[in-house]
TrEMBL record:
<dbReference type="Pfam" id="PF11356">
    <property type="entry name" value="T2SSC"/>
</dbReference>
<keyword id="KW-1133">Transmembrane helix</keyword>
<dbReference type="InterPro" id="IPR001639">
    <property type="entry name" value="T2SS_protein-GspC"/>
</dbReference>
<dbReference type="GO" id="GO:0015628">
    <property type="term" value="P:protein secretion by the type II secretion system"/>
</dbReference>
<feature type="compositionally biased region" description="Basic and acidic residues">
    <location>
        <begin position="223"/>
        <end position="236"/>
    </location>
</feature>
<feature type="domain" description="Type II secretion system protein GspC N-terminal">
    <location>
        <begin position="28"/>
        <end position="173"/>
    </location>
</feature>
<dbReference type="InterPro" id="IPR036034">
    <property type="entry name" value="PDZ_sf"/>
</dbReference>
<feature type="region of interest" description="Disordered">
    <location>
        <begin position="196"/>
        <end position="236"/>
    </location>
</feature>
<keyword id="KW-0997">Cell inner membrane</keyword>
<protein>
    <submittedName>
        <fullName>Type II secretion system protein GspC</fullName>
    </submittedName>
</protein>
<keyword id="KW-0472">Membrane</keyword>
<keyword id="KW-0812">Transmembrane</keyword>
<keyword id="KW-0813">Transport</keyword>
<keyword id="KW-1003">Cell membrane</keyword>
<dbReference type="GO" id="GO:0005886">
    <property type="term" value="C:plasma membrane"/>
</dbReference>
<keyword id="KW-0653">Protein transport</keyword>
<dbReference type="InterPro" id="IPR024961">
    <property type="entry name" value="T2SS_GspC_N"/>
</dbReference>
Length: 341
């Protein structure tokens, strides 16, 4: 009879237990367990791609000795380029100037002379003599021309390419017509010259010969009818050394030219008659050479300076000259000055 009594007592005890609270507790436990299972599943899928990524197995993630939390190697994550690579932005550049993009300039400038390095269009040893607002000065590559917004971009044998705003313009050497044909070397200039018409003569004129008469196309015939005064300074070794040293300095820094001599084209009725010479900031060498203020240079070593093609050819040979035979008009009289270089 004990068994029925025990069952009755257990039944009475079960009725006293709060079943609603137990059900809620069980429900909460089931939810937490389900969340735990879901988290395990998600982390499993996340870990698999990471293990097959670019992070090498030879470079394990570092762990802290004070906790089990893994510390992530930031440099490795950055190297993955998860958001792609940023392409470097290139600064906008001007197109290389050509005849099609460098028309004749309308700026009020005069290109009176060029000392160009034919081996490079942007050589630091090239210099242009440009007159602006009545003032003549020398300019190298990249220099801004006084009184304008233009700067020198290239110095060629017969022209200067100017950088003006976002474009380019061409400034031709005075006496040369603008053309789309740009001579790239002295040989191209010589191809345009009638060699038979140019009497270059010997490099060192014999001491008993007369001066070679320059082409007198635009000169004064009466002046050349007279025997020229002859000044032969080749035996002046001190002068020759000074000229040689100064020439080497000019090749290194052509901007020093204005310190020695100033050269200005002289025209009458639009025709080029020669180049007026005047001393620069230091007149010492100018005077020692036998030159005088306002001498009109018309010929050098047989090259007619009133013919721009011949003058350009002379410019291309300046570095090779060992002597200079200069004919100038002084008070309407020809004077021949011979210098050793």
């Amino acid at each position: 009879m004990e068994s029925p009594r025990l069952l009755e007592q257990f039944s009475q005890l079960a009725q006293k237990i709060p079943q609603n609270k137990i059900a809620k507790i069980i429900t909460v436990l089931l939810v937490l367990y389900s969340a735990y299972l879901a988290a395990l599943t998600i982390w499993k899928f996340i870990d698999e791609p990471a293990s097959s990524g670019r992070i090498s197995a030879a470079q394990p993630l570092t762990t802290s000795s004070s906790s089990n939390t893994s510390s992530i190697n930031i440099s490795q994550l950055v190297s993955l380029n998860l958001f792609g690579k940023e392409e470097a932005k290139k600064a906008p550049t001007k197109p290389k100037p050509t005849t099609s993009v460098a028309p004749k300039t309308r700026l009020n400038l005069t290109l009176t002379g060029i000392v160009a390095d034919s081996s490079s269009e942007v050589s630091e040893t090239s210099v242009a003599i440009i007159e602006s607002s009545g003032s003549q000065d020398t300019y190298g590559i990249g220099q801004k021309i006084e009184g304008t917004s233009a700067s020198v971009s290239q110095i060629l044998l017969d022209r200067v390419i100017l950088s003006v705003g976002v474009g380019y313009e061409t400034l031709m050497l005075e006496g040369i017509e603008y053309s789309t044909s740009i001579p790239g070397s002295a040989s191209e200039l010589n191809d345009n010259i009638d060699v038979d018409a140019v009497d270059v003569g010997p490099t060192r004129p014999p001491r008993n010969t007369k001066a070679r008469k320059p082409n007198n196309k635009f000169g004064k015939p009466a002046a050349y009818d007279r025997e020229p005064e002859r000044i032969d300074n080749r035996d002046d070794t001190e002068l020759a050394d000074s000229l040689r040293e100064q020439r080497e300095q000019l090749f290194e820094d052509p901007k020093q030219l204005m310190d020695i001599i100033k050269i200005t084209p002289h025209r009458e009725k639009g025709e080029l008659l020669g180049y007026k010479l005047s001393p620069g900031n230091d007149p010492t060498l100018f005077n020692q050479a036998g030159l005088k203020q306002n001498d009109l240079a018309v010929n050098i070593n047989g090259y007619d300076l009133t013919d721009m093609q011949q003058a350009l050819s002379l410019m291309s040979e300046l570095k090779e000259l060992t002597e200079a035979d200069i004919t100038v008009l002084r008070d309407d009289s020809p004077v021949q000055i011979i210098l050793a270089l």
